[in-house]
């Protein structure tokens, strides 16, 4: 590692990430942000009748729960941490499949959501996910468990941008399809991250 990389904190430190109190504080912040806003966004999704917001709220709640597991797992043995990461990946994959199935069912009787409320909630969600990603950024190169939590926050921020764009398209077209399409995109992000996390966890299990 170059000296300037170490001083700026832009490179991850796997050993430190597992034991540094700063990482524990970062995880606790992410848990509170994700669980708190996930509940609020779920209610907002039902009020706005937006499938994308509902999918994103599940992502927040899933991230909060998984980050809490990650916080608890810091004191566990390496193999147990790999097992936790594996369960995180499988859980995220199940969420992705569930969101896709629900979006298909909802498409049979689609109605346009409240675009203004959908966009406003999307902006707040983006701010929270960017904050979470920044808090975790310097720990992103840790073991599978650390990478899993970083990937969740990063992908959530990307999904929020899509939600905001969908809200604009709903307002412009008066159609529900942008909302449903973004719900599908969020589900695909779930599945992609699930694949990365599961393969990383299995690789670590094989090395121990």
Could you explain how this protein is built, in words?
The chain is mainly α. It is built from 8 helices and no strands. The model is unreliable at 1-14 (pLDDT under 50).
Characteristic key phrases:
mainly alpha; disordered N terminus; 208 residues; 8 helices; globular
Strand content: under 5%
Largest sheet geometry: none
Please report the number of helical segments.
8
Radius of gyration based on Cα positions: 18 Å
Helix content: over 70%
Q: Overall mean pLDDT score?
A: 76
Please provide the count of β strands.
Answer: 0
Output the helix-strand order: HHHHHHHH
Q: Which shape, going by the Cα principal axes? A: globular
Query: What structural class do the secondary elements suggest?
Result: mainly alpha
> Span from first to last CA?
25 Å
* Unreliable sequence segments: 1-14
Per-chain topology:
Layout: H1 3-8, H2 14-19, H3 21-48, H4 51-73, H5 78-107, H6 115-136, H7 144-173, H8 177-207
Concise summary:
The protein has helices spanning 3-8, 14-19, 21-48, 51-73, 78-107, 115-136, 144-173, 177-207. By secondary structure, the protein is mainly α.
